[in-house]
Design brief:
Strand order of the largest sheet of chain B: 1-2
Distance between the termini of chain B: 55 Å
Number of strands of chain A: 8
Strand content of chain A: under 5%
Oligomer: heterodimer
Structural class of chain B: mainly alpha
Order of helices and strands of chain A: HHHHHEEHHHHEEEEHHHEEHH
Shape of chain A: globular
Helix content of chain A: 55-70%
Number of strands of chain B: 2
Number of domains of chain B: 1
Number of helices of chain A: 14
C-alpha cells in the first residue's frame, strides 16, 4: 500500500464531532471578546460625548471622538466573526439546525433587526461628527447602545433556549409541530442569562478600556484626558460588578433548580447528599471521586438554598446515567472554570471597593501605584472571567446541545473535513486578532503623536476619506 | 404562510445580490486596477463610493441565513450538509474581506495597505463565485433533502454551479462599474467616468456571454430550472435582458441616473427569475416550499421582525444616505485625495 493510500482513508475517517466542537468553541471564544466592546463601548462613548457637550469639556469630546473610531474597528471585526457563526450553525451542526431551526432561529430574527440598527447607526454616528449639530449627533449614538443591549439579549435568548427548550410542541417522533415564538424567546433560562451577559458586557468592556488608560497613567500620562478615560470606563465597570455578583448568584440557584447535572459539575458533587462542601479547586479522578482541593464544609448546600442551610440536598453527577451528564473530565473543566470565574470576579469586586472607598473618603482616584497596576491587569482578568463563565455554561450543558432533547454528537455534521477548516479558521483568526490589536495600537499612537483635536474619519472603517479640512466639532 | 416566508427569503437574497454584489464588484475592480501607482485613481473612486454603507450591506446575508434556517430549517441543514466546501470558502472569504475593510483605512504604510487591499480584493471574487456556485447547486437539484448529504465536490463543481458562479462574479462587476460611473460623475472626474464606463460595458458583455452559454448548460444539466426559466419565469428573464441593454445605452448616453436603476433591475431580474423558475421547490425536486416550511408561529415571528426592520431601518438608511451625499461636495475631486492615504 502506498503512503497516500493509507493516509487518505485515515483522514477521511476522522470523527468530525470533536473538531466541530473545537471550531465552534474557538470561534465563539473569539467573538465573545468583541461582544462587550460592541455592547458597552457605545454607552461609554455617549457618556463622554454627553459630558463634552453639556460641560463644554474638550477632553471628553476628544475622548468620545477617539472611542468612536476604535469602536468602529472592533465592531467591523465583530461583524465578521459574527457572520462566520451564522455559517457555522449550519456547517457544523446541520442536524441541530434542521430539527430545531424553527425555534432556535426565532430570537435570531430579532437579533438581525438589532444588528442592522447597530450597523447603520454606527455609520451615522461616525459620519455625524462633522455633519450634524452636537445634540443631534449625540442622539444618533443612542440607538447603537440600545440595539447592542437588545441584540445581545436576543442571542442569549437563543442560547438560553438550548438550556431550557420551551415554546415548542413535539410529535411522537420528537419533531417540532408548532412553535410559540414568545415561549421560545422568553424561556425560563432567558431572563437571568440575558441579564448576566449584558451586565458582563458592561463589566468586561469597562475593565478592558479602563485597563488601557491605567497602563497609560502608570507610564506617566497623568493628564486630564487619560484620567477621564479611566474614570468613565472604570466607573461603568465598578457599577456593573456588584450587580453582576447578585445576578450570578441568582443564576447559579436557577441552575441548581433546573439543571442539576450542570450544578453538580460546578460544585464537583459526585453523589447526591446533604451538607455538601464547597470545594475550591480539586478534581474528579477516573473513578469519580473528588481529589485535592480545599473543601469548605457545608457551604455548597448553604449557598444552594440558604433557607434550608446545610440540610439542602444537592444532586450528584451519579444521579444521572453516564451518557446523560457531563463526563468526569468535562465536570473538571466546568468546576475549574467556575472557580476561575468566581475567584477573578471576587478580586475585581475588591478592586472596585477600593475605587469606591477612595471616592467616598478622599473624593479622588486612588493614588497608589498598586491600584493602577491592578487596574491595568483588570481588562485581561475580566476577559478571562467572561470566558470562564461561558465555559461553565456551555461545557456544563454537555452532552446536550438542546437540553434533554438532542445530544451534541447527534447534531454534528457528517463532513469529515472539519479538522481542515478548524486549522484554517484558527490560523485566520490568529491573524485577525493580532492585526486588530496592532491596528488599534497604531491608531492610538498616531492620534497621540499628532495630538490633533480635530475629528478625522479618514482612517475609520465606516468613515469616508476626507480631503477638505472642516471646522472642529463645535460646542455650544 | 410558507409562500410569504419564501417571498421574504427571496427579497433578502435579491437585496443581498444587489448591495452585496455591488460591494463585491467594487472589490473586483480594485483587484484588477493595476499596481499601486496606476491603480491609484480608480481605487480612490472605489473608496469614495463604498465608504460608509458597505458593511451594513453585509447584514443582508445574515438576514438571508436567519430567514432560511428559521423558516426552512431542513433546507438549510441539507444545503450546509452538502455544500460544506463552497460555504466554508465563502465564510473564510468574508473574514478576509471584512478584515481588509476594517483595517485597510487604518493602516498607512503602502505595503500594508496593499496587502490588506489584496486580501479584500481576492476575497471579493472568491465569495460571489462560491455563493453563485451554491445557487447553481441548489437550482440544479444537487442538494438532496433529508439527512443524506450530496457529493461534497461534484455538487458544486459542475457545469451549472460553475456557470452561475461566473455569472455572479460578472454581474457583481457590472453592477459595481455602473455605480462607479455614477460616482465618478458626481466627483466630476471625466477620466474615471470613461474608465468605469468601458469596464461596465465589458462586464455586461461578459455577463451576457455567460448567460447565453448558461442557457445551453442548463438545458443539458438542470432541466427543471431550464423549463421554469423558459415558461413561468420568462417575463423576468426578458425584463432582465431589456434592463441590462437599456442600462448600457443610458451609460453611453452621458451616464444618466436611470442607468443605475436599470442595472439594478437587470440583476434583480436574474435572481428573481431563479426563484420563480424553481417554484414551488425549495430544493428542486425533493423539497417544496410548503413541505419545508416551519410551523406558522415561527413564520409569524419572522414576518413581525421583518416588518419592524422595514419600519426602523429604512428611515435610518435614508438618513445615512443623505449624510453621505451631503459630504461629497462637487469641488472635492478625488485627484487631490493625497495626504491621508500616502
Amino acid at each position: 500500500m502506498t503512503i497516500p493510500a493509507m493516509i487518505v482513508p485515515a483522514l477521511t475517517a476522522i470523527d468530525p464531532v470533536p473538531w466541530a466542537r473545537s471550531q465552534m468553541a474557538f470561534t465563539l471564544a473569539f467573538h465573545i471578546i468583541l461582544v462587550p466592546l460592541g455592547v458597552s463601548w457605545a454607552a461609554m462613548t455617549l457618556i463622554a460625548n454627553y459630558r463634552g457637550i453639556k460641560h463644554d469639556d474638550q477632553d471628553a469630546l476628544h475622548l468620545a471622538h477617539r472611542w468612536s473610531k476604535y469602536m468602529a474597528v472592533t465592531f467591523a471585526v465583530g461583524a465578521v466573526t459574527g457572520t462566520v457563526l451564522t455559517f457555522e450553525f449550519g456547517l457544523l451542526w446541520p442536524r441541530f439546525m434542521g430539527r430545531w431551526g424553527e425555534a432556535f432561529g426565532v430570537p435570531f430574527a430579532f437579533e438581525g433587526l438589532f444588528f442592522f440598527t447597530e450597523a447603520v447607526f454606527i455609520s451615522i454616528y461616525i459620519f455625524g461628527w462633522r455633519r450634524l449639530k452636537p445634540w443631534t449627533h449625540f442622539w444618533t449614538g443612542v440607538p447603537i447602545a440600545v440595539a447592542g443591549i437588545f441584540g445581545s439579549i436576543s442571542v442569549v435568548a437563543a442560547n438560553a433556549w438550548m438550556n431550557s427548550p420551551q415554546g415548542v410542541t413535539l410529535d411522537s417522533a420528537g419533531n417540532v409541530t408548532s412553535v410559540d415564538p414568545i415561549g421560545v424567546i422568553f424561556n425560563n433560562a432567558m431572563p437571568l442569562m440575558a441579564a448576566h451577559m449584558v451586565i458582563a458586557a458592561y463589566l468586561v468592556g469597562g475593565f478592558l478600556i479602563a485597563s488601557v488608560y491605567a497602563a497609560g497613567i502608570l507610564r506617566g500620562r497623568h493628564d486630564r484626558y487619560h484620567r477621564l478615560g479611566f474614570i468613565i470606563a472604570f466607573t461603568v465597570a465598578a457599577l456593573a460588578t456588584p450587580v453582576q455578583m447578585g445576578v450570578g448568584d441568582s443564576l447559579a440557584r436557577w441552575v441548581f433548580n433546573n439543571q442539576p447535572e450542570k450544578f453538580a459539575a460546578i460544585e464537583l458533587v459526585p453523589t447526591t447528599s446533604t451538607d455538601v462542601p464547597e470545594t475550591l479547586l480539586g478534581q474528579l479522578n477516573s473513578s469519580g471521586e473528588v481529589t485535592g482541593g480545599i473543601p469548605i464544609p457545608g457551604l455548597a448546600s448553604i449557598l444552594s438554598d440558604p433557607a434550608t442551610g446545610t440540610s439542602t440536598v444537592v444532586r450528584g453527577l451519579n444521579a444521572e446515567p453516564t451518557g446523560d451528564r457531563p463526563t468526569n473530565q468535562e465536570a473538571n473543566v466546568v468546576h475549574l472554570s467556575w472557580d476561575i470565574m468566581v475567584g477573578l470576579g471576587t478580586l475585581l469586586f475588591l478592586l472596585t471597593l477600593w475605587y469606591w472607598a477612595s471616592w467616598i473618603f478622599r473624593r479622588d482616584l486612588p493614588r497608589s501605584k498598586w491600584f493602577f497596576r491592578a487596574a491595568a491587569g483588570s481588562g485581561v482578568a475580566a476577559v478571562v472571567t467572561l470566558e470562564a463563565g461561558w465555559t461553565v455554561s456551555e461545557v456544563g450543558r454537555q452532552p446536550w446541545i438542546v437540553y434533554g432533547k438532542m445530544k451534541v454528537a447527534d447534531a454534528a455534521t457528517a463532513n469529515t473535513g472539519v479538522w481542515v477548516t478548524f486549522i484554517a479558521v484558527v490560523l485566520l483568526y490568529i491573524g485577525l486578532g493580532v492585526t486588530t490589536i496592532l491596528v488599534l495600537r497604531g491608531m492610538s499612537r498616531r492620534s497621540r503623536d499628532s495630538d490633533s483635536r480635530r475629528f478625522d474619519d479618514a482612517d475609520v472603517p465606516y468613515g469616508r476619506r476626507e480631503t477638505v479640512p472642516e471646522p472642529e466639532p463645535t460646542v455650544r | 404562510m410558507s409562500t410569504t416566508a419564501a417571498v421574504i427569503l427571496f427579497a433578502a437574497v435579491t437585496t443581498y445580490a444587489i448591495f452585496g454584489g455591488a460591494d463585491f464588484g467594487a472589490g473586483f475592480w480594485d483587484l484588477v486596477a493595476g499596481d499601486a501607482h496606476r491603480g491609484q485613481r480608480p481605487r480612490d473612486v472605489i473608496d469614495h463610493s463604498i465608504g460608509p454603507v458597505w458593511e451594513a450591506n453585509h447584514v443582508w446575508l445574515i438576514f438571508t441565513f436567519v430567514v432560511l434556517w428559521t423558516c426552512f430549517p431542513t433546507a438549510y441543514a441539507s444545503i450546509t450538509l452538502t455544500l460544506f466546501v463552497p460555504l466554508t470558502l465563502a465564510a473564510l472569504g468574508i473574514v478576509l474581506r471584512g478584515a481588509g475593510f476594517a483595517f485597510r483605512k487604518a493602516v498607512f504604510r503602502t505595503r500594508d495597505r496593499r496587502n490588506f487591499g489584496a486580501a479584500f480584493a481576492l476575497s471579493s471574487v472568491l465569495v460571489p463565485f462560491c455563493l453563485g456556485a451554491v445557487a447553481g447547486s441548489i437550482a440544479s437539484g444537487r442538494v438532496p433533502d433529508g439527512g443524506a448529504p450530496g457529493d461534497p465536490w461534484s455538487s458544486w463543481l459542475n457545469p451549472t454551479s460553475i456557470t452561475l458562479g461566473l455569472l455572479a462574479v460578472c454581474m457583481a462587476a457590472y453592477l459595481a462599474a455602473v455605480f462607479l460611473v455614477w460616482d465618478a460623475r458626481r466627483l466630476g472626474d471625466a477620466d474615471m467616468l470613461t474608465y468605469f464606463r468601458l469596464r461596465a460595458v465589458t462586464a455586461a458583455v461578459a455577463a451576457g456571454v455567460v448567460a447565453v452559454a448558461g442557457i445551453f448548460v442548463l438545458h443539458q444539466d438542470a432541466r427543471y430550472l431550464f423549463n421554469g426559466l423558459t415558461s413561468r419565469a420568462l417575463p423576468l428573464v426578458i425584463v432582465s435582458m431589456v434592463a441590462g441593454v437599456a442600462s448600457l445605452l443610458m451609460l453611453r448616453d452621458r451616464a444618466r441616473p436611470g442607468a443605475r436603476l436599470a442595472a439594478v433591475a437587470a440583476v434583480a431580474g436574474v435572481v428573481l427569475a431563479w426563484g420563480v423558475a424553481q417554484w414551488d421547490y425549495l430544493l428542486p425536486q425533493t423539497l417544496t416550499v410548503a413541505t419545508g416550511a416551519a410551523p406558522n408561529g415561527t413564520i409569524q415571528a419572522v414576518i413581525v421582525a421583518t416588518g419592524l426592520a422595514a419600519l426602523l431601518i429604512v428611515p435610518a438608511f435614508v438618513l445615512l444616505y443623505t449624510l453621505d451625499q451631503k459630504s461629497l461636495l462637487p469641488e472635492e475631486s478625488v485627484s487631490d485625495a493625497g495626504p491621508t492615504g500616502e
